[in-house]
Amino acid sequence: MGSKLAELGRYVNVNGVMDYIEKRRHDDGGYCFVSVLNDTNVNDTYYAVKIHDLLGMEVPEKEKTVEFLEKAIQPQTAVVAIAMALEGLAILGAKDVAMEHLDIVFTKYNPLEGKFAVGLGGSEEFGTATPLEATYWVVKAFKAIGYKFSEEEKDAIRGFVMKFRNGNGYGVKQPTSTMTYQALFTLRALGYKPPKSPHFRNCELCGDWGGFTEVPYSLPPYLEPTFYATRGLELQGETPTCPRRHVWFIRQLQNSNGGFRRSLELGISNFQNTYRALAVVDSMIKYL
Fold it and tell me: Was domain 2-287 assigned CATH 1.10.1740.10?
């Protein structure tokens, strides 16, 4: 635990991060990135769990957080949020609890019935979740809890994902870093071997900038494509061209409250950005 904190602490203010997270923990076991609100939610709680896990730290009063995440798995909950809750439970050592609620997932996500997230609801990236995003989150969650899809389910999911193939990547109107990573992760998690995509490399910014973009040869960089492109390069066994510059980019995103924003311009901190910033630094420092 200490070594991870010390390692990342050479580049970003990790103590500030933990203070930021802890101040936003509530008595129900959930978290809310706006500290003055009691509106705890699955998204913030999931990323609080992910941050603790990344840093090798125990979640305080984790039994309360397990209870909070389990209660969040309801028929009216969006499938992305349900997947987050399942993965969060797995990280907290409650895979058995997660497995008890798979029936709710299959009412919304059933590839054999052509259901790729009924009632998509909220999204991580785009306001309303795309079916590809929902597929990514469900596959990631099922992998975390140890649920294995049947061969028929895998084939159905693969066929669905391939509908988003767009040139050298994956996307709706054009390939993006986010959707290309989500597609490649999903295919690999199911046991397929898609060809490497040059998309992530084409979105890398060195020189004065650092970071990655959603689409090639554009500006400015943002945190979410930097996170997904970093993951994409790792997935393909590739290394970033200028890791020091990417760490510099991330360092500029930390706000005075300890959390991170998404761009070099002014912006508020949230848990999602904070986890992604730490994850990028954790990945990059291997190459320094």
Answer: no
